[in-house]
Amino acid sequence: MKNKSEVKKFRISNPQSDVLLDVNSGFGQPTDTIVTVDGEKIFQEFGAIKGKSIGKASGLEGKEVNIHLMAQDKNDNSDNFDIVIKVYEENDNTSAEMEYKGKASEEGEVVILDFLLFVI
Amino acid sequence: MMKKILFSTAILLSSLTMAQTESKDSVQEFNFNLLETPSDPAFIIMGNSNTEIEEPSDVSALKTSILNATDNLSEFPGNYALSIAPAWLIKGDAISYDEYLNNSKVVDNIWQSLQLSFGTSTFEESSENYRRLGGGVKFSIYRGSVNEGLQNKYESYFQNFHAGFVKTRDSLLRSDSLYQKTKKQFLATDDPVLEKQLELKLEEMREKVTDEVYEMKKQKVEELGNIKLERTGFFWDIAAAGAWNFYDFTNDIDSSDIYRWGGWTNFGWRDSAAQNSFIGMVRYLSFTNDPFITPTEVIDSLDYESLDLGLKYVWNPIAKFKISGEGIYRLMLNEDMEHTYRFMVNVSYDVGKNQIVNLALGRNFEGVYTREAEGLIYLGYVIGFGNECKLKL
Fold first, then answer.
1. In whole angstroms, how far apart are CA B63 and each of B119, B177, B365?
2. Within a domain: B272
3. What are B195-251's pLDDT values in tens digits?
C-alpha cells in the first residue's frame, strides 16, 4: 500500500463561486473518490471526475474539505500511476493540487491519497 | 522422427535456484507478473515461437524476454525478444480507466493495443555470426470487453471498502487529541514557517493513521486484487512481420537477405469466465531464399508463398496453468508444391514470479525444416525481465 497525505489552507477569493473538483488518473488505473465536508460525505464517485461541484465557496468557508482517493493497480498494460487531484474555484482564481506519480511494487497494490483543505 | 529438445531440465533447475536467491530489490525493480512465453509477431516470423497463433491479451508497455536456446549452462542466451506498446510507454499517463475498459472506439483500441516487437536469434549453432533479426507490428480492431457484471462487482466492492476505510480513519483522527490540538494550532497561525511545520506534522500523523487502518483491513485488498478484470467476447487482431538473415553479423552487415515476411489476422471469442478461447487465423507468408527439403532433394534456396489457415483452442482454468491446441493447414501458393500442415499442443505453468515452464508437443510443416514432417518437443523455461523496468537492458 502506498499512502500520501497533503494538508493545505484553501483561501477563497469569491464566496459566490462554486468550488470544483477534477480527478485524473492515467495508465488505465481505477480510482474511487470520496469527498467529505467536516466529516460528512458529499459524494463518492468511481473513475475520472471533471468540474464536479463540492459546494458554494461561501458555504464551505471555515470547513474542512477532505478528498479521499483510492486507486489500485488493475490492468495488464502498466503498473504505473499518475493521479492528479485539483480543487479550484469556478473562475480558477484559487486552486490547490495534489499529484501522485509512482508504480505498484506488486500486482493489485492500492494507493491511498488524502487531500485535506481547510477553507478560509 | 527427430526430437528437438531446445531446453534442458538442467537449465530449468539452475534457473529456479537462481530465482530463489534474487534480492528483494531486484523483485521490486521489475514486474515479472506479465511474463508470457514469447509469441509476438517478430518471434513468430523468425520461427522461434513455439506457438504460431497468438492469443488475445493486453499488451505490456515494455516486455523483454530471453529464450535460452542452449543446453550449455556456460553459454549466454542467443535469443531475445522485446516488445513495446507506444501508447502505454509514451502516453500512458493520459489513458483513463474508462478509456482502458472501452472496447467500442476502434481508434482507441488500435492505439492502446499497438505493439511493436523485435527479436534476434542465431540460426546456425556453429556461429554467433549467423544471426536472424525480426520485427513486427500488431494491433487489435476489437479487443474484447470486461464483463459488465464483473466490472460492477469490482467497482461496488472497491467503493464499499473505500468508504469503510475512510470512516474508520476519520473516526480515529477525531479521537486523537494530539492531532486535534495540532490542527487548531495550524488554523490559528499566520506565521508561514510555523504553518509549514504544522502542515507537515499533520500530514505525517494522517499517514500514520492510514497505515494503521490499512493493517486492520488489508485482507480486503487481497480480495479486491483477486477480482480479475479480464476481457472476454469477440476480438480481432491484425499483425505483420518480417525477418532477415545476417551471415556475418559482426563483420559484414551487408551480407544479408530477407528470410520471411507476411501478414495475418487472428479473430475469435473468449467465454465470459475467460477460461476458454477459440481463435481462428488467416495468414499470408512469403519465404525468400528459404532452405526447403523434400523427400528427394535438398533445395538450398527457394522462394515460395503460402496461405495458412489455423484454429486454436486455449483452456485456462486457473491463472497459472494453461493448455492449448492449435492446427494450421498451409496452402502452398506455388503450383508445384504440396500443401502441408502443422499441429501443436502446448502446456505452460507459471512456476513462480518471473518464471514459466512450457512444454509443447506436435508436428511441424513438411519441408520447412527437415526432410519429413518434423516431430517437435519443446521443453521451455522462460524468464522475463519485466514490464516497465528501469531500462537496464
1. 12, 50, 29
2. yes
3. 999 999 999 999 999 999 999 998 888 888 888 888 999 999 999 999 998 887 777
**CB-based contact B97 A82, cutoff 8 Å:** no
Nearest-neighbour CA in chain B from A119: distance (Å): 10
Question: Hey, are the CB atoms on B31 and A28 less than 8 Å from each other?
Answer: no
Which one, of B330, B227, B280, B365, lies nearest residue B55 by Cα?
Answer: B280
Site of grid cell 497533503: A6
Of all residues in chain B, what percent carry a pLDDT higher than 90?
A: 42
Chain A residues whose CB is inside 8 A of the B59 CB are 76-77
Four-residue CA torsion sign, B18, B19, B21, B26? positive
Q: How many CB pairs under 8 A join A and B?
A: 142
- B160 and B309 fall within a common domain: no
Question: What residues make up the domain containing B176?
Answer: 150-225
Contact B224 A80 (CB under 8 A): no
- Domain match, B200 and B243 both: no
CB neighbours of residue A4 within 10 Å = 19
Residue B4 inside a domain? The answer is no
Q: Which of B155, B218, B55, B34 is nearest to A79 (CA)?
A: B34
ipTM of the complex: 0.96
Domain assignment present for residue B35? The answer is: yes
Task: Tell me which chain A residues have a C-beta less than 8 angstroms from the C-beta of B34.
Answer: 76
Looking up residue B341, the CATH number of its domain turns out to be 2.40.160.40
